[in-house]
Amino acid sequence: MLETHQLGLDGVLEIVPKRFGDHRGFFSETYNASLFSEAGIDLVFVQDNHSLSGAKGVLRGLHYQLSPRAQDKLVRVVRGSIFDVAVDIRKGSPTFGKWVGLELSAEKWNQIFVPKGFAHGFMTLEENTEVVYKVTDYYSPAHDRSIRYDDADIGIAWPIASDLIQLSDKDRAAPRLEILIEPADTIRYAATGAKRAGILRLPRQALHIELPKAARVEWRETYTAILADFLVQAAAYDPGR
After folding, report:
1. Which of 23, 50, 120, 133 is catalytic?
2. Fewer Cβ in 10 A, N or C end of the chain?
């Protein structure tokens, strides 16, 4: 029986393979298709990836691939340790934008399963950390996407200060989560977040806006301007009128 633990977001699991040790060292089955199938992970993995990060504080993520080339991932550490994160980016999900984090290490010998519909990233907690992970589709540059690791709307509590983090140029230039949201939803999402933060104080009905179909078609180019205009109107909103 495979040892698994729910992590609070639907489908994201911690997996702890058995490890058998003696005076010579240890032996472990890190992947067994039959056992994983019994645990509800009945998938075909087609590619194995292996990364080495020389420094503590290297951050890789948040990454995902668009459908139809989306990937399920099974991640483990063979040397060192990481703080691993999955973010729900499934449109319509009740936990959209929520995240879960888990420490993976060679010492703990645990793994994390991250299904399609989640962005994934990790931060190294030790020097010379090696991460190995299996994926269910091949890397596709045309479908490869990123989300900013420090997006305030997600609010990941990374365990190392941002000024000590090492990023690739690609990850440093990644867009925010709101790029995944339709324009009307983008405005509601941003305004609701601002309201929670105390920046805006609006009644709930003020956060409901319907956009014409033409605006929805070109939302990627127009949503920033729409949002800016909304926030100007929101600042002038008079609930007494």
Report:
1. 133
2. C
**Angstrom distance (rounded) from CA 228 to CA 195:** 15
Token pair for 51: 């990364």
Q: Tell me the C-alpha distance between 227 and 108, whole Å.
A: 45
pLDDT tens sequence across 46-102: 999 999 999 999 999 999 999 999 999 999 999 999 999 999 999 999 999 999 999
All residues at 6 or more sequence positions from 212 whose CB lies less than 8 Å from its CB, including other chains? none
Non-local (6+) Cβ contacts of 117 within 8 A are: 11, 70, 88, 89, 90, 93
Residues with Cβ within 8 Å of 10's Cβ and at least 6 positions away in sequence, in order, are 88, 93, 95
133 belongs to the catalytic site = yes
- Is the Cα dihedral 146, 151, 157, 161 positive or negative? positive
- Note whether 101 and 85 are within 8 A (CB): yes
Beta-strand (E) ranges in the chain? 3-6, 13-16, 19-22, 25-28, 47-53, 59-65, 73-79, 81-88, 99-105, 111-114, 118-124, 129-135, 144-146
Instruction: Give the residue from 143, 145, 141, 138 showing the smallest Cα distance to 121.
Output: 145
> Helices 219-235 and 183-197, interaxial angle, to 10°?
40
pTM equals: 0.76
Domain ranges of the chain: 3-173, 181-235
Look at the domain 3-173 and name its fold.
Jelly Rolls (2.60.120)
pLDDT for 148-165, tens place per residue?
999 999 999 999 999 999
